[in-house]
Structure formats: C-alpha cells, structure tokens
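lol ok so funny story. i was supposed to be doing the assay writeup but got distracted and ended up predicting the structure for this chain instead. priorities right. anyway since i did it might as well share w the group, maybe its usefull for someone
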Amino acid sequence: MSPRRRLLLLGVAGLAVTALLIVLGARLLGRSDATGARPDQARPGTVVLVPGYGGGRAALSRLADRLEAAGRTTVVLTLPGDGTGDLLTQADTLDSAVRDALRHGAPSVDVIGYSAGGVVARLWVDRHHGAQVARRIVTLGSPLHGARIAGAGAALAPDACPQACRELAPGSDLLRRLDGPLPAGLPWLSIWTQDDETVQPPDSARLAGAVNVPLQSICPSARVGHGDLPTDPKVTALVLTALGTAPLTAPTTCP
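and the output, tada:
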C-alpha cells in the first residue's frame, strides 16, 4: 500500500472515530442531538438529592424514601468537604452522580437541592449544561442570592467561615456570576418558607424564570422552619407533584 493511500485510510478512520465519540457523548448527556433538546417530560428518571450546608443527609434520606415509595429511583449525594467546601467542587460531584445515573440507563434526571444544595444545582446547570439532562429541578429554602448569616460570618469571623460560607455571602463573586436567567424551557420549582430562620431574607430563594412558591402563599397557617422543609408533609406533597409528568405550574391550593 502506498504511503499516500495509507494516510488517506487513517484519515477516514480518524473521522469515523470522532463521529462515534460525538454520538456517544450526546447519548451520555441524554441528548437526542446536538441542538440541546430537552429531556422527555413524560419519562421521569433518577432523582438526585443534594444536601445543604454541612452535608447532612438524614432529612433528605426521608424525602428520598418517600420518593422511592412513589416508584422513583433516588440518590442522596455525599458532598465533599462535609458540605462546607467549594460549591463548584460540589457541583462537580453532582455532575458525576448525574452522569453515573445516565450511564446506568436513566433517560434523564430530576434534581432536588435543599438549602445550599439549591445553589449547587444552579451552579451545575450553569457549569455543566445541566439543562440538557435535567428534566426538572426543585429547590427548598435555597439562598440563591445569599444569606445574611453567611455575610456576617464572612465579614466578622472569616477564619470560622469555611469556603462555602463565604461563597454564600450576598454579593460574593460566585453568586454574582450566577446572576442570570435560567436556560429556556427548564422546569424549576423553588419553594421557601416565610418562617425561615436560617436563610434571611427567605425570598433569597426567588429565582427569575422559575415557578416561585412561598409556602405560606398557599398554606397561610403553615409553621415550617428551614430545617423542616425536606420533611414537612405539605412540602413533600408539592415536591411529588412537581416531579410528576403533568406540566409544572404554580400550585394554587395547600396540599
């Protein structure tokens, strides 16, 4: 075989391998093509739950059990650095869990972020093109615009305020980089409680482009603190409905 013919064949083989990798990559990302198609809303996949600051999994494990009883497959993340380290690293951990679920056959993922876990979900969407594989996202009491307690800690006791604490201070560099609209067509429900004693102001959870629901707007008598959000029966009912197959809309009645 002449050297020129050998080079031609190698070039064709290289193009074939490149095309195959592109197809496989698109499938791993849950995309039907390279146009950024959204996951099928009628085919719920794995639910990945992201704990809040400190990484406690117990409350979310109860919510995961409820989702499992409803027939869903769930994963509760174990966050690096005990949930107090770099939120970008936590978003990388979320992405690894998502890719693992897709590799094991999930058609898409739903993500639930509790407290700072909601900021991690927002970072994941922004950093890892999460809107291409996330069917729906729900956040519970998430300081998407920061929390005063984190701001006070960063200003008054920076040595006692770990990296995630500093990143959750209102106006932090990380939060400023997230100050933009959600990707079009990504169903996102943000729930918070006016009784939140940790995330102040509570409507730091409000997110442009999401379905925003202060719990007391539909359940005026509800007395739910920040730590109660993942286990409160009314909130759980809202989450189960939001992760169904009907279009995601703002609830009008208390469950």
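The chain has nine helices and six strands. The chain has a mean pLDDT of 89.
back to the writeup now i swear
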